[in-house]
Design a protein that fits this description.
Number of strands: 22
Strand content: 15-25%
Helix content: 25-40%
Number of helices: 20
Structural class: alpha+beta
Bound molecules: flavin-adenine dinucleotide
Radius of gyration: 26 Å
Largest sheet: 7 strands, mixed
Distance between the termini: 69 Å
Length: 629
């Protein structure tokens, strides 16, 4: 037995585990982090990148609530991009290619700065007394006691790796499988099942002919993830060298090879039981499901700045190694490619997230929290978000048994994630998309501070300086916002370069109207305001106000749709409805509705994967077809 009792023990040093440990320590708890191997803390098991559509919002929210992921991504970023940069702010997303070695080093540095003891060992069972967890027992036969245990075991529980017809124990290549703990947990009341995931072979960069690939250039203007990293300073002092990525494609020959060998793929010959991630399919899946497609994208991403290893994003596979070699070499520019290690699939045990409260505490074992891929999600960001919420709630519980933090669907993607998991559960690996939120026009990257900073401050996670700056900013934003809405000009006051765009000459015009005109350059209006000395305006914040003004009408439409949805949930869906006829629904939604054939709209909503926006589309369809009175 270890002498000291800890407040919180976190098992697993992956993306969920490090967030739980870090935030618990920030909230003044003594923390023990037990993980198989210290060197693999925060390891990116698959693609070396953070963010992307839907996921970037999670990272921004994690950052605002005191978490690590945004800071780590900035400090190890080697290619920052803004996805959908030509579209509206609600669908723009930051994505960062990271150096996966520096990412891990930085994670360990952050943990070291806190009161966290890191212990390298395997947890084999839990100490449970009267349905209350009291600690853990390890492979080295040490018993550690604590008030709370957080399990964030990722893909390691009872996990098997598959390459062709070979399989062996492992949660990731070169890592263990957590068999003892899986067997222990299977004997509790927690319900479990199997899922699977996969990864592509890693290639020697030297062996690729980059002249044959299309360069994906660095975005000149990009945002950092962390609100607390000041762009100018960061660029001068901390930004790593930025590198290009490349794009290539599979071809007819690649597809023929895969089709010919499909029976050697454990995904197709029945060796693997679990369901895989729909939105990260293997190349085998893509070729079988989209038989008419003549090629598929491959993004070539450097794993780190040394650039010895290239990650070919898009060809995740579990075919035998000799077929993988042939497949890779069938691709233009990869004719001489050397595989450093093979692609593979992993099958692993997960636990039903419906057995958790929305704090991520188990309904059956008190003081036990589960976070990350163990709850059926896929992705680093989804895992980190859960780790953070488990850590915050564990800490709140230790302070006062009644306190809890349940993030809301209406102000965060983290709220959507937790609510979807704990209420609907999952039947395939869950990843975040903007379409999962009925409030997606409000849940933007640019307003994460309005949405979450006061919550973070309440938990003691925002210092006085940042809080004062935020309050100053909000005051200014409110002033400008109200001024824009209320200030009225008579057209005679306006300068010629603005006036020429205004059609209704003899009317009075609000500043908001001017700003919402797509023809008048915002700069012209701002110059006019500046010249006329418009009191109180701190032009530093005008950009944010303009985004707010732009979204105002859409947000009122969104809330009326939301209320319409609440009202119409009892609506019957005709049983002859053909979901495949309804445009705008994703294939996932069509497939699931067709399979479950819900009778009421509310029943459709309870199906995992059916998004609120899908329900709105169905509602509009029913209205159009006169099914609604
Ligand atoms: P992990 O990051 O897996 O961390 C689990 C931690 O628990 C590890 O540190 C491990 O050592 C530790 N551990 C486990 N059992 C024990 C024990 N008994 N005692 C002590 N320590 C223990 N996500 C995507 O979004 N897209 C993809 O394409 C994708 N592909 C993937 C391919 C593969 C092969 C794998 C393995 C994962 C893939 N993922 C992908 C998933 C992504 O890696 C995970 O979602 C994410 O890492 C989950 O974070 P986590 O913290 O829950 O678990």
């Amino acid at each position: 037995m270890y002498q000291k009792k800890f407040d919180i023990i976190v098992v697993g040093g992956g993306h969920a585990g490090i967030e739980s440990a870090y935030i618990s320590s920030c909230m003044e708890n003594s923390v023990l982090l037990i993980t198989y191997n210290i060197k693999t803390i925060a390891k990116l098991s698959c693609n070396p990148s953070i963010g992307g559509i839907g996921k970037s919002n999670l990272v921004k929210e994690i950052d605002m609530l005191g978490g690590l992921m945004g800071k780590l991504a900035d400090l190890s970023g080697i290619q920052f991009r803004i996805l959908n940069s030509s579209k509206g702010y609600a669908v723009r997303a930051t994505r960062v290619q990271v150096d996966n070695i520096i990412y891990r080093k930085n994670a360990i540095e952050f943990l070291k700065q806190k009161d966290i003891l890191i212990h390298q060992d395997e947890v084999i069972s839990l100490i449970i007394d009267n349905n209350v967890v009291k600690g853990v027992k390890t492979r080295k036969n040490i018993i550690f006691y604590s008030d709370i245990v957080i399990l964030s075991l990722g893909t390691f529980l009872d996990s098997k790796i598959f390459i062709g017809n070979d399989y062996f124990l492992g949660g990731r290549l070169f890592d263990h499988s957590s068999v003892f703990l899986a067997n222990f947990l299977k004997k509790t009341k927690l319900k479990s099942d199997y899922l699977k995931t996969g990864t592509p072979p890693r290639l020697s960069t030297k062996s690729l002919n980059f002249n044959e690939f299309t360069k994906q250039k660095i975005d000149k203007d990009f945002n950092l993830f962390s609100y607390f990293h000041k762009k100018k300073e960061f660029f001068k002092q901390k930004l790593l060298p930025q590198v290009d990525c490349y794009i290539t494609y599979t071809n007819k020959l690649t597809h023929q090879l895969i089709q010919k060998n499909i029976n050697n793929s454990p995904l197709y010959n029945g060796l693997i039981k679990g369901i895989g991630p729909r939105y990260c399919p293997s190349i085998e899946d893509k070729i079988i499901k989209f038989i008419d497609k003549s090629n598929h994208h491959i993004f070539l991403e450097p794993e780190n700045l040394f650039n010895k290893i290239t990650y070919p994003n898009g060809i995740s596979t579990s075919l035998p190694l000799h077929i993988q070699k042939k497949m890779v070499r069938s691709i233009k520019g990869m004719e001489k490619a050397k595989i450093i290690y093979p692609g593979y699939a992993v099958q692993y045990l997960f636990f039903d997230p419906k057995d958790l409260y929305k704090t991520l505490e188990s309904k059956y074992i008190k003081n036990l929290f589960l976070a990350g891929q163990i709850n059926g999600t896929t992705g680093y960001e989804e895992a980190a978000a859960q780790g953070l919420i488990a850590g915050i709630n564990a800490s709140l519980k230790l302070k006062n048994n009644k306190d809890k933090y349940i993030p809301k669907r209406s102000n965060s993607y983290i709220g959507v994630l937790i609510d979807d998991l704990c209420v609907k559960g999952i039947n395939e690996p869950y990843r975040m998309f903007t379409s999962r939120s009925e409030f997606r026009l409000y849940l933007r990257e640019d307003n994460v501070d309005y949405r979450l900073m006061s919550t973070s401050r309440k938990f003691g996670l925002i210092n006085d300086d940042n809080w004062a700056k935020f309050k100053f900013k909000m005051e200014n934003i409110n002033n400008i916002y109200n001024f824009c809405k209320k200030k009225i000009f008579s057209v005679s006051e306006l300068p010629k370069n603005i006036l020429k765009y205004i059609k209704i000459k003899n009317k009075k015009i609000t500043l908001k109207y001017l700003f919402s005109s797509s023809k008048i350059k915002k700069k012209k209006i701002i110059n006019f305001l500046k010249k006329n000395n418009f009191y109180n305006i701190n032009f530093r914040y005008i950009k944010e106000v303009l985004i707010m003004l732009k979204y105002d009408p859409y947000l009122s439409k969104q809330s009326s749709e939301f209320f319409m949805l609440k009202y119409y949930k009892k609506i019957f869906i005709p049983n002859n409805i053909n979901y495949y006829d309804i445009s705008g629904l994703s294939n996932e939604v069509k497939e699931k509705l067709n399979k479950f054939r819900p009778v009421l709209l509310s029943q459709a909503y309870n199906i995992s994967g059916i998004t609120p926006s899908a329900l709105i589309i169905i509602l509009i369809y029913l209205k159009k077809k006169n099914y609604l009175k």
